[in-house]
Each structure stands twice: as C-alpha cells, then as structure tokens.
Automatic annotation (TrEMBL), chain A:
Keyword vocabulary terms for this entry: ATP-binding, Cell membrane, Ion transport, Iron, Iron transport, Membrane, Nucleotide-binding, Transport
UniProt name for this protein: Sulfate/thiosulfate import ATP-binding protein CysA
GO molecular-function terms, A-Z: ATP binding
Domain (ABC transporter): residue spans on this chain: 4-218
Pfam families in the cross-refs: ABC_tran
From TrEMBL, chain B:
Organism (species): Paenibacillus plantiphilus
Family membership: Belongs to the binding-protein-dependent transport system permease family.
Protein name: ABC transmembrane type-1 domain-containing protein
Compartment list: Cell inner membrane; Cell membrane
Listed InterPro entries: MetI-like, MetI-like_sf
Membrane topology per record: Multi-pass membrane protein
TrEMBL record, chain C:
Organism superkingdom: Bacteria
Name this polypeptide is given: Iron deficiency-induced protein A
Signal peptide positions on this chain: 1-26
Family, per entry: Belongs to the bacterial solute-binding protein 1 family.
Region described as Disordered: spans on this chain: 31-56
Low complexity biased stretches: 31-47
InterPro entries: Ferric-bd
CDD domains, sorted: PBP2_FutA1_ilke (cd13542)
Sorted UniProt keywords: Ion transport, Iron, Iron transport, Signal, Transport
Native source species: Paenibacillus plantiphilus
Length: 220, 520, 373
C-alpha cells in the first residue's frame, strides 16, 4: 500500500493566475526517500507546502499514512498532520537556543521524556556540544542539522525538505549529503525532498520525480 | 469603530447655510495651511529621523550609545507645551530677550525671533515629532538590515550612496509608518496651530464648532479630513503594492556599526547633541526653572491623584490597544485581503481626526448605548433614564482606544512585516496550533515592536487633552488637563509644574522600557 | 476553512475585549457608586444610625468652562460649610454644551458655569436651562447682571479695554473703540486673533450698538491697522507693546491684573510700563463680559445648585474671586483689590448679554469677510 498518495492536485496562488501545479499525482512508499526535481518556479516548493497543509489545493486529494489529509470536503490543519518540515533557510526560532528549538515540537511529551528525546536527537545530528547556542551562533551546516533534528523530534510520519542544500557552500555539500542520507536511513524516515540540483537528488534519494511548469510528468 | 463611522455619516446629513460660509471663507486657506504644515513637517521629520537613525545604527561615534535612546525622549514633551515654552522663552519677557536687555543692554528689534509663525510651528512639530520616525527606523535597521547593508558595503558603496541607494529604500516601511504617525499628529493638532494662529483644517473645525455652534458642519469637515487620510492610505498601499519588503530571510542578526573617526565622528556627535538640546534639554530646563518660580503656589495635594489618573487611564487603554492591535494585525496578515486591510485602516484613522471630534462620536455612541440598556439599568435599580456607561471611565478609555489605535497598530504592523511567515509555519508543522504558535513564536519575536508600540501609545495618551476634557467622568483630572487649565489662561509659568510632572512620567516610562529592551 | 477560523478567532477576541472594557467600566462605576454613597446617598439605607451631618449632604454636579484655582477653592469651602459635595467636569464651553445636549434628560449636570454672555445665551436658546428662583440671589446680583429670565446668574465681569505704552502714548489721544479703527493708529494697534471669543463678543456688541454696516467697517479698520498678524493671547499683546511692536492693544482688564501680580519680575515690569484706558466713557460705554452660572433644565440636585450660586454670589466669595482673579464682582458689597480700585468707576455698554450670542454668527462672518485673522 502506498504510504503517501497525492492525487490530481491542482494549485494556484491567485484566482486569475495560471496554476502553479496542474493535476499532479504521485505516490511514496514507507521509508522511501523521494526527490522532486525542477527548475525554480516550477511549483516544487508549493507541492511541499500542500503536503504540509500550509496551502490549500484547488482540486485533488492528499493522503498520508492511510489518513486523508485533504480532499474536496476535508482539510486537516497543519498542526494535526504529523508532518515534519525543514524549510529552505531553516526557520530556526531566533529567540530559542538549540535545545529549545528541538524541544519545540515535543510539547505533548512529559518533561523527562522530552529531555531524553532532545538528547537523542542531539546525538543523532552530532550537536551535543552546541546545546545552549543560539541559531545565529551556528554555522550554516549546523543550523541545517538543528532544523533537521527539530523536524524529526516529534517523529513525523513524513519529512519534507525544501532545498536543504541551497544555503550551504559547495565544499560542505558532499559530506553533508552523505550525512543526511545516513540520518534519514537511521531514522527510517519517509522523505520528500525538493531541489533544483540533480546531483543532490541522486546522492540522497531512492528515486526522483521531475516536475515541470506546464504539466508534471512522473518518471520512475 | 462605531464612533468613526458616526463621524463619516456626517457627510450624508443635509448641509446648512453655515456650511456655505465655511466653504466660501475658510476652506481654501485652511486646507492650504494644513497641507503646508503637513508637507514640511512630514518632510523634515522624516529627514531628521532617518538620518539620525542611520547615524546611530550605522556608525560609531562618541556618545552614540547615549543618543541611541536619548533621541527618543523629545516624545515625552507634548508639542503644545513645547510651543508655549518656546514662544514664552523667546518673547519680550522671556529669558533670551530679557537677559540681552538687562545684562548687555541689547534691545532686539521686535520680530527678530518669530516663533509664532508657520515656520515656528513647523520647527516645533518637527523637533518634537521626529522621534516617531527615528524610533521605528532605528529598530528596523538594527534588526533587519544587516545582510543587505554589509553586502552593499562590500560592494564598495560610498557612505552617501549607501544611505540613498540602500538604507532609504530598505527602511521604507518603517519610515512610512513613522511619517504617517507624524502626519496624523499634525493633521489633528489643535494646540500648536491655534496658539500660533495658524489656519489649518483642525482650527477650521473648531472655529465652526465654537464660533458658529455648528457641530454638524464641524463633523462634516472632520469627515472630509478622514476621507483624505484614508485616501493617503490607499495611495501608500498602491505605491507599495509590488514592493513587499516582507523579510525574505529568517537569517537576521544585528548590524555591526562602522568605525567613524576624527572630524566626521565629532560632527555626528555635535549634530545629535544640537538636536537633543533643542528638542529636549532646552525646553525641559526652561520648564524646570519656571517650576521653581511657581512651585509654592501651584502645588496641591491632588497632584498625586492627577499622576495616578494620568498613568492608570493611559495604562489600561494602552494594554487594550496592544491586544487589539496584535490580534487585528495578525488577522490582517493571515487573511491578507483588501477587506481586512481596509478595516484595519479605518481602525487606525482615529488618530488623524481631532480628539474632540472623536469624542463627539464616542459620546453619541455611548449615550445611545445607555439608552438601549436603560431597561437593564432599571432592573438593576439604577433608576429611570440613568446614564451608566457614559458617566464611567470606560467612555474615556474607549475614546483613547479609538483615537490611539494607530500608534500601537502601526508598530505591530511593521513588526509583522519584518517577521517572516516561515516561523509560524515551522511552528505549525511542529504540531503547535495557531494560537500556541502566536504565543510561543510570534509574540516573543515581536517583543521589540510590542514594546515600541507600548511606549508610543502610553506617552501619547498621557499627553492627550481634548478627548480627556470631553469624555472624563466627574472629578477626573489628569496632568494634561491641569496643564491646559493654566495654559489656556496664559499662565505659562504656572503650567510649568504639571507640565514637568507630565514630562517626568512620560520620561520614566520611556526610560523603563529602554531598560527592559537592554536587558533582553 | 482556515480563513473562517481566523474570522471566528477575531470575533471572539473582539467580544472578549469589549467584555473587558465593559468590565473595567463597570468596575469603575461600582467604585464611583461606592464613593458617592460614602458621601451622599447613605441617607437612605442604614443612614438612620449615622451622624446627622450626612443628612444635609448630597451633591451638586458642575460642568464648568472656568478654570481657575480660586473656583476649586470656593467649591471646597462650600462643601465644608454645607456638606454638599461638588463634582466637577472642566472643559471648553461649546463642548460642554454639546455634551449636555446629547445627554438630554439623563444629564447628570446641575450647573453650567462659563465665561461669556454669548455662550450663556446659547445654552439658554438651546433650551438647556431653567430659571433660578432665589430671593437671596436676586438681592445679591443686580438685574442687569442676570439673564432676564434668570436662566443664568452673573458671577463676575471683566472689561475689554485699551492698553497703551505709557512712554509713547498720551491717554488723551485715546477715546473710543471706533477711534482705534481710524488711520491714526495705522500699524500701531495689536489685538489677538479674531477667533477668540472676547473679540467676537466685542464685535457683536458693536453690531448691536452701531449696526452691522458700521461694525463691519470697524472690523476692517482694525484689521488694516494691525502692527502685526494677530498672535498669542491677551498678555502677549501687552508684552508686544513694551517690546515696541505696537503702541496700543485691546485687552481684558483681568489679564492686566494677572500680569501685575505675576511671579515673574519681567512680567511685572511689563505691567508697570502699560496704561489702562476705559474707552467710550463719553459715548456708549466700555465693553464688559460676564462669567455666569446657569441652572440646567434637567438638573437632579436643583436645590443644592441654587445654594451654590447663592454662596458664590455672596460678598465673601465675591471678594475672594475679585482679589485672586482681578475680576469685577457682581455683588456690590464685595471688596475690591487695590488695582481695581485704582481704575475707579466706569460706564459699561449696558446692553443685554444675550446679544453677544445672537450676533455671534454675524460677527464670525464679518471677521472672515474683512480678513481679520
């Protein structure tokens, strides 16, 4: 059974503009890391935002882990979807330090459990020494890892990553790519990743989907 | 909001013959007078505010840290008090001329120092209103501009072109919010204009009311003023339509000022000092001196009550304003529709209408409300036809809220403009609901804007006069009304003590909040 | 759907805020009620056991456009003597009138106190007032200083006089208001803005005496003779005389008194260098204006209000007003301060103060027409 099913989704920003995503469908299996490739402006970020519930599709349905998230009559709010997202520039809360950032999504856990989970995540992304730092005191790569840890901490059913490497310099990219791949494998995460760089996708993903401006065509 | 609609409805009431007189004799001159005052004051205040903000943020020079907050202080001095102070100071019996005459035997020809003119009014209004622009622009530059400005510096831009090409366009939303506040203030000003004998729309409104007892025509004039203001908003919105400087990046860090050395640095210090002296130290010193002359006669035990009244009224109203401002700014942002924008604008338009006209609107609505509720009152045993709401402090507080929504709202709005949406989105993907996200993420990040809005509003309300005069309950005096009581009677020296206390309290609240900001 | 939610959120919070405001209003109200009952209404309920003092108590509510410390002192003394609490709202006269109008039958105001006969008359013609019936007052205040239907009672008067530079002007050159509009004073005259009520009432009185046409010519003459555009208040005209901007000015006696008694040496010097001239003594009389207390039609404490007027027009209060504020008393038995005595007796216009109000719109029209700023 498909873990994530996106069916015939159409989306546009404003009524009079042409759709950014037109009748797009795809599926993901559990534990699969899928890359979405496309030039900028091709609507790939919008696709992630639709899955996350930050935007509302005009048509179509999205199902995650056997639960209908959105279709013609139904809309599950962002906070109830159990989706993790790493934003393009990470969106780390500047007023919170690393630990507080990671713990942010763990409000439902008891204090002890929360502490444990944060520790676990810090170890996973190897930032134990930076626990009390604030985002602006971290390097780009470190910020990315915090963002990843924060998204993974509440154990989301799916992780969405928007251009995870765009803010990193090239020399770091290779090592971070493999690092990320390992982390995702370790966490057995289903992951939808968006990039304009085919090399990123190749290095991390199990398979890729190319999305184009006019019509999306899926390739296996 | 009802009271503002009430004022607008004034347009639809039938005209009477007074309106013809108003149109014939007053309108052109008075509209021109207002336009002149608004244009010049707005321009100079923007210039002064932005230049000072950029100096303080972008460069290091002696006393920079001091000026960073000290230049906000002129806000604590109500323009009408500044006007009285400056004109008395420069008058024949004032300190300057009498010293020259008595010590040096120099007699200035009459009219040498002419503060009571349109130039004088522009001078006063600019000096005491520029901190709006300064404060909002400074906060913006400090928090949000680092990467752009450092980039521009790296690209080898000269100081001047950096300022013109980068700083100005970048801080445009903050400058505009600041200038809007200045413009509103100038439009609604009655104190300075009437004292200096300026002809403005605001004085025309009162001339129709007080001179011809024609409240309807006065309200009609105010309604036109309101339309102009809303028009200004629409134009501003239209101009900005395609240039949303909504912060695109969440990577913000404080801007590091550049070293400034030698003459340039001392020049900057001197410039800031002159402005600070003129806009704060000089009038304050003069008022303190006058207070020592009249203290024994003017001090009354009820001054403590006056202070408590001033503070508590302003604090309650400000708290409510900040809550409403936060909620509505947030809603407007989430809906981002023109309707929400329109509603939020109407809410803030109260700032540009003279206080007394807002007061009439509030009075009308409250009395109507009391009449509606009269059965309830009877049931509560308050007697037939009792006025309950309109005799309570809540009427005044509501008046404050309507009139001063703008200061709070503008601060919050520009705060939100700087706050990338992605934080809220991140919070929500982490399973926090809308409301939780607001409290956990947006509110802490907006702290600066909330604090700024709070100071601006509370100081504004404490200075407020016409609304307080008309809407207060029995025996409710504030420092502002006491100052008025003396000043209206040309007893400027006697007005010094309440003025001083008023400035003092405003000053303390400004300092307190500067302190809080620092600790953070 | 998300949007609908936001609307609901917004509506809810507005309701909440309204409740909050109402709550704080109610809270204050309760306080007000508590205060009031502490001072007055205790007479009902458990008051039987209370000391008799509260029985004579009660209150009186005043809307006043007079803003002098001496008034507050007199109210305090009144409360001390009678146990009647005086509640005050100060404001600008036209605004207070508007407030009373809008409050209608529910108005809490008992008395409306203001300066200027025109305004008092406006309140009367707006049917906001009722007659004051009191023999005490009739004996204390001469009929010409009361409304003809006793809707308001005069409290004090001030004269609008000519003030001149002692070193440059010989008082014998001065004669009448009309004379000030002749070429003789071109570039030498000063007066405050025509938007000020004192000037409008002066003009109204001249319309009433000389007719509209002559009054308009007079106003045009005044505007043409001005040494500078009108600025500042009455005191500023006196200062400008001493500074040499002009030689003569139109000014209220009351401000001359205040200058002479100023705490500031420079202001006292100014007062020494100017002379006071009561114009039109040979002809129509000097223009005076009046402060008065008017009884509100829907007053709920009418008896207390009348008591207060009786108190304020009694010789004791009248002497105090005159001494501290340099106004002329309405009660002939009151004692005058030295300065006012030194000016001696003078003849006033003796026209009905109601004319100031009735002719006010005409006066406004004239000053706008002739360009007296």
């Amino acid at each position: 059974m498909n873990f994530v099913a996106i069916k015939h989704v159409t989306f546009r920003y404003a009524r009079r503009q042409p759709p950014v995503i037109d009748d797009f469908s795809c599926t993901l299996n559990k534990g699969e890391v899928v890359g979405i490739l496309g030039a900028s402006g091709s609507g790939k970020s919008s696709l992630l935002r639709l899955v996350a519930g930050l935007e509302l599709p005009e048509k179509g349905s999205i199902m995650i882990d056997g639960m209908m998230m959105v279709n013609d009559g139904l809309y599950v709010d962002v906070e109830n979807r159990g989706v993790g997202m790493v934003f393009q520039d990470y969106a780390l809360f500047p007023h919170l330090n690393v630990v507080e950032n990671i713990a942010f999504g763990l409000h439902k856990l008891k204090r002890a459990a929360r502490k444990e989970r944060v520790q676990e995540m810090l170890e996973l992304v190897q930032l134990t020494d930076y626990a009390k730092r604030y985002p602006h005191e971290l390097s780009g790569g470190q910020q990315q890892r915090v963002a990843l840890a924060r998204a993974l901490a509440p154990k989301p059913s799916i992780l969405l990553m928007d251009e995870p490497f765009s803010s990193l310099d090239a020399s770091l990219k290779t090592s971070i790519r493999s690092e990320l791949r390992q982390i995702l494998r370790k966490a057995e995460m289903t992951c939808l990743l968006v990039s304009h760089d085919a090399a990123d996708i190749e290095a991390i993903c199990d398979r890729s989907i190319r999305i184009q401006k006019e019509m999306a065509e899926a390739t296996a | 909001m009802l009271p503002i609609l009430y004022v607008l409805l004034g347009l639809f009431r039938p005209t009477n013959e007074n309106w013809q007189i108003v149109k014939q004799y007053l309108l052109t001159d008075y509209v021109l007078g207002s336009a002149k005052l608004v244009l010049f004051t707005g321009f100079f205040a923007a210039l002064l505010g932005v230049v000072l903000a950029w100096l303080v943020v972008g460069y290091t020079f002696p006393l920079r840290r001091f000026f960073r907050w000290a230049l906000v202080l002129p806000l604590a001095v109500p323009p009408y008090i500044a006007a009285y102070t400056y004109s008395t100071m420069t008058s024949y019996t004032g300190f300057i001329q009498s010293t020259l005459r008595n010590q040096f035997d120099i007699k200035l020809p009459p009219g040498t120092i002419e503060i009571m003119s349109s130039k004088g009014a522009i001078f006063i209004m600019t000096l005491f209103l520029f901190p709006y622009v300064f404060m909002l622009t400074r906060t913006f530059l400090e928090r949000q501009s680092a990467s752009y400005i450092e980039n521009a510096r790296l690209l080898g831009r000269s100081r001047l072109s950096l300022f013109i090409k980068v700083v100005l366009p970048l801080s445009r939303p903050a400058i505009i919010s600041g200038v809007m506040l200045v413009v509103f203030e100038v439009f609604s000003d009655y104190g300075v204009a009437s004292y200096f004998g300026m002809q403005t729309v605001s004085t025309a409104i009162f001339q129709t009311w007080f001179g011809m007892y024609d409240v309807d025509s006065a309200i009609r004039l105010a309604a036109w003023l309101l339309i102009v203001i809303i028009g200004l908003f629409v134009i501003e919105r239209f101009l900005r339509r395609n240039r949303q400087f909504n912060a695109t990046t969440s990577q913000s860090r404080p801007l590091k000022p550049q070293q400034m050395k030698g003459i340039a640095a001392w020049g900057a210090t001197a410039f800031c000092s002159i402005i600070f002296l003129l806009a704060f130290i000089v009038p304050l010193t003069q008022i303190i001196v006058w207070t020592t002359w009249t203290y024994h006669k003017i001090w009354r035990a009820d001054f403590i009550d006056l202070m408590v009244n001033s503070l508590s009224g302003a604090a309650i109203a400000t708290a409510v304003i900040m809550i409403i401002a936060l909620l509505s700014a947030r809603t407007a942002r989430m809906l981002s529709s023109s309707l929400a924008y329109g509603v939020s604008r109407l809410m803030t338009a109260g700032y540009a209408i003279p206080g007394a006209i807002v007061a009439i609107g509030v009075l009308a609505v409250f009395i109507a409300l009391d009449q509606r509720l009269s059965t309830v009152y009877e049931w509560l045993g308050k007697g037939e036809g009792a006025l309950v709401l309109s005799l309570s402090l809540s009427m005044l507080i509501t008046g404050y809220i309507i009139r001063f929504m703008a200061t709070g709202y503008n601060a919050i709005e520009s705060g939100y403009e700087k706050l990338p949406r992605v934080y809220t989105e991140a919070s929500r993907t982490l399973g926090r609901g809308n409301t939780k996200s607001f409290f956990k993420v947006e509110l802490p990040l907006l702290k600066g804007a909330v604090i700024t809005g709070f100071i601006l509003t509370i100081v504004e309300i404490m200075k407020e006069l016409p609304l307080t005069l008309l809407l207060r309950p029995f025996n409710f005096d504030t420092l502002a009304t006491r100052t008025y009581q003396y000043a209206i009677d040309e007893r400027i020296y006697d007005a010094a003590l309440p003025s001083l206390l008023l400035i003092g309290i405003s000053l303390i609240s400004v300092l307190l909040i500067v302190r809080l900001e620092k600790e953070k | 759907m998300q949007q609908r939610r936001n609307y609901v959120f917004l509506m809810l919070t507005f309701v909440l805020v309204m409740a909050l405001i109402a709550g704080c209003g109610a809270g204050n109200n309760n306080n007000g009620g508590a205060n009031k009952s502490a001072n007055g209404t205790k007479t009902t309920g458990e008051a039987t056991a209370e000391e008799p003092e509260t029985k004579t108590g009660g209150e009186v509510n005043i809307y006043t456009a007079r803003h002098y410390d001496v008034d507050a002192d007199l109210y305090a003394k009144f409360t001390e003597q009678t146990g009647i609490k005086v509640n005050v709202v100060e404001g600008k006269a036209p605004e207070l009138i508007e407030k009373i109008k809008r409050e209608g039958t529910s108005t809490p105001a008992d008395l409306f106190i203001t300066v200027d006969g025109g305004i008092l008359n406006t309140a009367k013609t707006a049917e906001l007032l009722q007659p004051v019936v009191s023999e005490v007052i009739d004996a204390q205040v001469p009929a010409e200083l009361r409304d003809k239907d006793s809707h308001w009672i005069g409290l004090s008067t001030r004269a609008r006089v000519i003030v001149y530079a002692k070193d440059r002007v010989n008082p014998s050159e001065l004669s009448t208001y009309e004379d000030l509009a002749t070429d003789k004073w071109k570039g030498k005259l000063m007066v405050r803005s025509s938007t000020n009520l004192y000037n409008l009432s002066l003009l109204a009185s001249l319309i009433s005496i000389n007719g509209e046409k002559e009054a308009e010519a007079w106003a045009a003459g005044i505007a043409a003779n001005l040494a500078r555009d009108p600025e500042g208040g009455d005191r500023d005209q006196a200062k400008a005389i001493v500074a040499g901007t002009g030689d003569v000015a139109i000014m209220n006696t009351y401000y001359v008194g205040n200058l002479a008694a100023s705490d500031v040496e420079e202001e006292r010097k100014v007062a020494e260098q100017i002379g006071v001239f009561f114009p039109n003594q040979q002809t129509t009389g000097t223009h005076i204006n009046i402060s008065g207390a008017a009884l509100i039609k829907h007053s709920k404490n009418k008896e207390n209000a009348i008591k207060l007027i009786e108190y304020l027009t009694a010789p004791e209060a009248q002497s105090i007003i005159s001494k501290t504020n340099f106004e002329f008393p309405v009660n002939k038995a009151a004692e005058l301060p030295e300065l006012l005595k030194s000016w001696g007796e003078f003849k006033s216009q003796g026209i009905d103060f109601a004319a100031y109000g009735e002719l006010n719109p005409k006066a406004v029209e004239i000053v706008n027409k002739v360009g007296w700023k």
